[in-house]
Amino acid sequence: MSQTMTTETFLKHYTLDRRGTHSVKWDALQQRFNTTDVIPLWVADMDFKVPETVITALEARIKQGAFGYSLISPTYHQTFIDWLTRHHGYTPKKGWLRFTSGTITTLFWILQAFTKPKDAVMMLSPVYFPFFSTPQDTDRTPICSELQRDNTGRYYIDFDDVEQKMKDHQVKVFILCNPHNPVSRLWSEEELTRLFTLCEQYQVLIVSDEIHQDFHFGTFTPALKVANGRFKESIITMTSASKTFNLASLPVAHIIMPNKAHRQTFDNYVKTIDHTQLSVLNLVAAETAYQTGDVWLTGLLATIQSNYELLKRELLSKAPNIGFTPLEATYLAWLDFNAYIKPDELDAFLIKECRVGVNTSTNFAPASPGFGRFNLAAHPDTIKEAAKRIIQGLKQRNLI
Ligand SMILES: Cc1ncc(COP(=O)(O)O)c(C=O)c1O
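Above: query sequence and pyridoxal-5'-phosphate SMILES. Below: predicted holo structure tokens.
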């Protein structure tokens, strides 16, 4: 049996106080929330140290003292491919890969390389906000298809709406969030097959953002695996070590393009705008994490899951009408406060009254207001304190 780590062991070894480390999440509270008196459960990174092996590898590389132009290590590609094979059951070819310094940067490039100004770019909403700001900022037209919710709070795709909008707006690119931030869905093979069949029918390029691929509590289906790879020529997949291993300030993103013409279009575009080198430290960190981070990841996932249960227990025992979206993936809990708080008061309620700093529908879902996104990659004491403050806030308003 493969080795795993318990939550207790993970917390004992990897708990981290990030205050005073130039952390956006902890040290930019004044700028973001206009106060420093909030518990930060917002931006999607973690209050945990990277695997110990990554720290050791970085130390050893720094001690070499050589930071001139560097080659990508000859083992990097294979290490990344091995991770995908081991964890996600598919094996891209080395020639399909490109490395960049971020998935959102790459999304800008893809939109500019593959579409024209005003072209329609589609996404399922609520979604991570750069999915619609990136088309806006590049003078493309974002088209949202609103996800629907069933009575368990689980979201699903309105395929009729997707098809109608693809037709009406002549959509050129579909940006898929797989798994989906913030609604925590693991899209099934059946859903993806249906979606990709529509994309095929309407000649829509699929960009699958799989940055949350390693946080799944059920079956994750990579876009390139759907129907045994039948749609691979229409897909560009993006992943990054930064999300899985909390390396956002040492980024390495991976772009997977099985289609030769796509690679040519991408390469021709990138050569006109980017000649920077990836930092050797970023590559060392990512490669070491992919080689040695499996057990660390099991401890992290156990912690995320137990934090979700903790938040649920603490809140629902006193405020049973808060809606919990089932946690299928990511480390982000998407909570519905509509039973207690008017949507236009939610930011003020959570941030000013409860002193809990989260992202809300204002950031993700103008069309589905009243939700808060809680970052579960934190110490359980932090989660507990946030829940306590929310209960106090509801009591102060005489709502419970
Ligand atoms: C779905 C999704 N894509 C992309 C990003 C950001 O990725 P990067 O830092 O590589 O631009 C995030 C960060 O939270 C995300 O949730």
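Residues 44, 102-104, 128, 177, 181, 209, 211, 240, 242, 248, 251, 253 surround pyridoxal-5'-phosphate (CB under 6 Å).
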